[in-house]
Amino acid sequence: MQPPEVILDNADAVYDFYLDHRQNRWKALAAYALLGRRYRPRVSYADGAREQLRALVRSGRPTIYSINHLSQSDPYTVAATAWRSPLRSIIGRVRVLAKDELFIEAGQRRNVDMMGGIPVFRGKDHGIRAVNAAGQRMMDICAQRLARGDHLAIFPEGTCNEVDPTQVQAVGSGIGHIAFRAMKLGVSPALVSIGLSYGPRADPAIAPTKEEAKSASFYFRPPIAELPAKPGDIARSARDDLQSALDGAIANY
Length: 253
What we know:
alpha/beta; Glycerol-3-phosphate (1)-acyltransferase; 9 helices; acyltransferase; transferase; 1-acyl-sn-glycerol-3-phosphate acyltransferase; Plipid/glycerol_acylTrfase; acyltransferase activity
């Protein structure tokens, strides 16, 4: 199946394609290894979290990885962290939600596809009403991928935090709806919160440079094995746990 053009008017064809799309895992492993060497993130864990994360990965249980969002460098530093953590063994089996504009230029799209990207048409870019149907389909696709045994990485704030890098911004209900829909399909995804800090920022609106993004601090919280039953409660739980992860990343910077 030929990759469809990623535009809102073509959303049905886009999500039909990304329901089944698989990247080349060997290319993904090579790319993540390169990013691991380039960015050299510092990875730390809450008490017992590393052992729990290893056990979770070995179990094969579908998992949602939730990360706070600070800059356009985040996908690269997160990929580097995956290489330098117990997540290395699931590289190539993780779907990553990415804004639709990253799929426009052909070369960039190949890279995003190689990293397991699934396009997101955001309300802030196209209007809330215009993206409603596409958003519903995107959440269904994510739930189906989880039900098939894939994992999902998401920046639940939805956009870069240019307000206060020490505080997780509002988390939309999307992460809750994805987990809820996966549960309706018969799977019970775990949730792992990963905090990210590039250190103190004089002006949060100015993103870190590529050099400043090196040696970022990442902090893993223990997996949440049992999520609440309602989407809104899941989202609130995800936000609280992500703030704890961010606090850890800042403390260990």
